[in-house]
């Protein structure tokens, strides 16, 4: 019996089951839930826009619209000017129809949106068009209204889900509301925290509608990551206790990626970091970061002695897909060491797929393009359902999978999902992935399991990106993250 763990994320089907249990088992009528939802949303509206005197509510044909009618009624009863534009004719019966009648009988003007009339004059617009019931792209009239609201220059409060956003996947099949605030009811939906969601939800608040803890019986399988750091180092720590990362990459002309990976492994706290790379990179690497032990490796034989000393492998940054990179990649895959695969290490895996021994600690960190190649689908397919994609990766390769992008996702082979709530568009730049690879390798080197290294690494990396973006998201460089990363790792939140 767990209340909605404040980081638990639910599917629409799971929330519907909670709704049903509230109605059937706890005997709370659906209309009472609707009234509580409207009250919670209205209270949020007053908190966020205390000066608002006029609100306009846009109601769809279902229960999301029902929430909107009851919110308009509450605003009217509180002395605000409230108007309603309805997308559809009054529904025959049901809670939404009852809500609309209560609204009209109280004297709140309810007019039909004819597809062209101007928006209502208001300080705040309330989006009550679609919630968890969205099952196709908004149709022309609704789409036109959504686009007008988005360009209306006034804040939008979205009820439960910004209309047009799929509450399960975070994908927008068509146009979608861009809200300043979303008040979500009963339980947080997965789709509010990944993919396109962050461009549409604004701030997300959860209203549990005063339901008793006994409602949340089944434990959900998706959670928002929580801020965490590594436990403090024992005083007698020595470099041998913090593992030895061997970063493999840096084909002709690409020293930067493997260097960033190695630096991140050092900053991430690995005891020792070696780099196996092409001879031409040595000077640049040693000059840039002498603490990295760079080795010229021309093939698998030269790699062997380095593998014997390493405890974790990070394979892929700047590896290339030529004979040199492929030979080193094969050697790394045939070792039993913990492994982080990224960039060309993943492209080579897409070309020569294999399942890893579940006992081996392996983390793969694709961006959507690499994920598409690994899954044999399009990038659109990946982004259309990121949760399905990341789970597919973990199951297909038998590894811990990270699917990067807005709201990075983490899946392990038994289906548990974690969602990263941090990060910003400034991080969509070269080298950010190389940092993550090195950081995850460093955490593995310090004894984390693949799952903990991925969760901690993704969270710290994104939080460091948010700290570094305090000086602006434009021009954010991967190396800007190294300083805040070190602070976060040591629990010294900058
Ligand atoms: N169930 C409860 O106890 C509570 C529900 N709450 C609110 O209810 C909505 C979910 O309501 P539902 O009627 O299932 O669906 P929607 O209102 O989201 O959608 C309306 C209706 O519209 C049709 N539809 C879907 N997509 C489209 C489209 N693109 N174009 C046209 N029509 C579309 C579809 O038939 C839907 O049924 C939930 O989000 C909450 O806001 C209460 O708040 C809490 C209790
Ligand atoms: K909505």
TrEMBL record:
| The gene coding this protein | nnrD
- List the keywords (alphabetical): ATP-binding, Isomerase, Lyase, Metal-binding, Multifunctional enzyme, NAD, NADP, Nucleotide-binding, Potassium
Q: List residues binding K(+).
A: 64, 127, 163
Cofactor annotation comment: Binds 1 potassium ion per subunit.
Q: Note the InterPro entries from the entry.
A: CARKD, Nnr, Ribokinase-like, YjeF_N_dom, YjeF_N_dom_sf
Identify the residues that bind AMP: 404-408, 433
Q: Which residues bind (6S)-NADPHX?
A: 63-67, 131-137, 160, 257, 318, 367, 434
Superkingdom of the organism of origin = Bacteria
Its biological purpose is as follows: Catalyzes the dehydration of the S-form of NAD(P)HX at the expense of ADP, which is converted to AMP. Together with NAD(P)HX epimerase, which catalyzes the epimerization of the S- and R-forms, the enzyme allows the repair of both epimers of NAD(P)HX, a damaged form of NAD(P)H that is a result of enzymatic or heat-dependent hydration. Catalyzes the epimerization of the S- and R-forms of NAD(P)HX, a damaged form of NAD(P)H that is a result of enzymatic or heat-dependent hydration. This is a prerequisite for the S-specific NAD(P)H-hydrate dehydratase to allow the repair of both epimers of NAD(P)HX.
| Cofactor needs | Mg(2+); K(+)
Q: Reaction catalysed?
A: (6S)-NADPHX + ADP = AMP + phosphate + NADPH + H(+); (6S)-NADHX + ADP = AMP + phosphate + NADH + H(+); (6R)-NADPHX = (6S)-NADPHX; (6R)-NADHX = (6S)-NADHX
Does this UniProt record's set of keywords contain Isomerase?
A: yes
* Source species of the chain: Frateuria flava
Where's the YjeF N-terminal domain? 15-217
Subunit relationships: Homotetramer.
Q: Could you tell me the EC number(s) of this protein?
A: 4.2.1.136, 5.1.99.6
YjeF C-terminal domain mapped to chain residues: 222-492
Family statement drawn from the similarity comment of this UniProt entry? Belongs to the NnrD/CARKD family. Belongs to the NnrE/AIBP family.
Name the record gives this protein:
Bifunctional NAD(P)H-hydrate repair enzyme
């Amino acid at each position: 019996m767990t209340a909605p763990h404040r980081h638990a994320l639910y599917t629409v089907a799971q929330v519907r089951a909670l709704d049903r249990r509230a109605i059937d088992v706890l005997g709370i009528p659906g209309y009472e839930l609707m009234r509580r939802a409207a009250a919670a949303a209205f209270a949020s509206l007053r908190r966020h826009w205390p000066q608002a005197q006029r609100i306009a509510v846009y109601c769809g044909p279902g229960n999301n619209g029902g929430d909107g009618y009851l919110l308009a009624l509450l605003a009217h009863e509180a002395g605000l000017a409230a108007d309603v534009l309805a997308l559809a004719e009054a529904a025959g019966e049901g809670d939404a129809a009852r809500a609309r009648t209560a609204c009209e009988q109280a004297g709140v003007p309810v007019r039909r949106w004819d597809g062209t009339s101007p928006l209502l004059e208001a300080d705040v617009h309330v989006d009550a068009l679609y919630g968890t019931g969205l099952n196709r792209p908004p149709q022309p009239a609704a789409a036109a209204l959504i686009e007008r609201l988005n360009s209306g220059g006034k804040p939008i409060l979205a009820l439960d889900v910004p209309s047009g956003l799929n509450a399960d996947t975070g994908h927008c099949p068509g146009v979608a509301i861009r809200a300043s605030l979303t008040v979500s009811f009963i339980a947080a939906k997965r789709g509010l925290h990944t993919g396109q969601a962050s461009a549409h939800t604004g701030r997300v608040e959860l209203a549990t509608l005063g339901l008793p803890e006994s409602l949340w019986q089944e434990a959900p399988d998706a959670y928002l990551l929580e801020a965490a750091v590594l436990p403090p180092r024992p005083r007698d720590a020595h470099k041998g206790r913090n593992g030895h990362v061997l970063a493999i990459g840096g084909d002709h002309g690409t020293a930067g990626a493997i260097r960033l990976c190695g630096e991140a492994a050092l900053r991430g706290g690995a005891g020792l970091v070696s780099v196996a790379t092409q001879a031409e990179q040595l000077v640049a690497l040693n000059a840039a970061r002498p603490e990295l032990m760079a080795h010229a490796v021309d093939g698998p034989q030269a790699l062997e002695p380095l593998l014997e000393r390493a405890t974790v492998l990070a394979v892929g940054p700047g590896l290339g897909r030529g004979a040199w990179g492929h030979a080193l990649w094969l050697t790394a895959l045939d070792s039993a060491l913990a492994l982080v695969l990224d960039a060309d290490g993943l492209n080579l895996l897409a070309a020569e797929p294999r399942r890893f021994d579940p006992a081996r600690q392996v983390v793969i960190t694709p961006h959507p393009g690499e994920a598409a190649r690994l899954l044999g689908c399009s990038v659109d397919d990946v982004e259309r359902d990121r949760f399905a994609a990341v789970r597919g990766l973990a199951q297909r390769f038998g590894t811990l999978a990270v699917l990067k992008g807005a709201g990075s996702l983490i899946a392990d082979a038994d289906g548990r999902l974690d969602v990263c709530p941090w990060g910003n568009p400034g991080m969509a730049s070269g080298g950010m992935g190389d940092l993550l690879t090195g950081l995850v390798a460093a955490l593995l080197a310090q004894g984390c399991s693949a799952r903990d290294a991925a969760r901690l690494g993704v969270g710290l990396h994104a939080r460091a990106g948010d700290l570094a973006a305090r000086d602006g998201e434009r021009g954010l460089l991967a190396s800007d993250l190294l300083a805040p990363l070190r602070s976060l790792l040591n629990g010294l939140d900058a």
